Amino acid sequence: MSAGEQTTTTAATPKTPSLTLEAALKAVSGAQVRSDLPTIKVGDTVRVHAKIIEGTKERIQVFEGVIIKRARNNSADATFTVRKVSYNIGVERTFPLNSPRIDKIEVMTSARVRRARLFYLRPLRGKAARMKTLFQTNSDADKGGTQAA
Question: Looking at the domain assignment, is residue 44 inside a domain?
Answer without folding.
Answer: yes
